[in-house]
Design goal:
The protein contains two helices and 14 strands. It is mainly beta and about 160 residues long. A hairpin with a 5-residue loop joins strand 6 and strand 7.
């Protein structure tokens, strides 16, 4: 009977913004869920906060992406903006380090939204589950204005 219930892991908004379905992201890699399922946000702020508690597994050298792993084994990526990688780190001030333990709401990075807007960058930011073969995304909060720390979707082990 205990196996019937699966623990849900809440994934919170890493910044204030508006949620949208991954299939609406203007990058086919994300829209076709090639990297995993989740939710995208159009950010209203540049501070990127931890959406889950866990360990920092990866910080892209360019600062545009950070991966976290929870104690349940969930691997999650925060990818700030589309094509922000091409700026080679300009516009990002990373605050987290690989191996660091973080809690929901801890500052991971600061993105200079004004810089990216002046460059005409699409700031749509996917928050995705990298191990979709082990975890299912449920309870997506789509088309909503959210504040940092507010749940945007949940994840359960398959």
């Amino acid at each position: 009977m205990l196996g019937i219930f699966k623990k849900k892991i809440s994934v919170c908004a890493p910044f204030d913004g508006r949620t949208m379905d991954m299939t609406e992201v203007r990058d086919p890699v994300f829209a076709q869920l090639m990297m995993g399922d989740g939710c995208a946000l159009i950010p209203a702020s540049g501070d990127v906060l931890a959406p889950v508690s866990g360990r920092v597994e990866l910080v892209a050298g360019t600062g545009h992406a950070i991966c976290l792993k929870t104690e349940e084994g969930l691997e999650l990526m925060i990818h700030y903006g589309i094509d922000t990688v091409k700026f080679a780190g300009k516009g990002f001030e990373v605050k987290a380090a690989v191996g660091q333990q973080v809690r929901v709401g801890d500052l991971l990075c600061h993105a200079d939204m004004d810089f990216f807007k002046k460059q005409g960058v699409d700031l749509t930011s996917p928050i995705l589950v990298l191990d979709s073969n082990q975890f299912a995304v449920v309870n997506k909060q789509l088309g909503k204005d959210v504040t940092a720390g507010e749940p945007i979707f949940s994840v359960v082990r398959k």
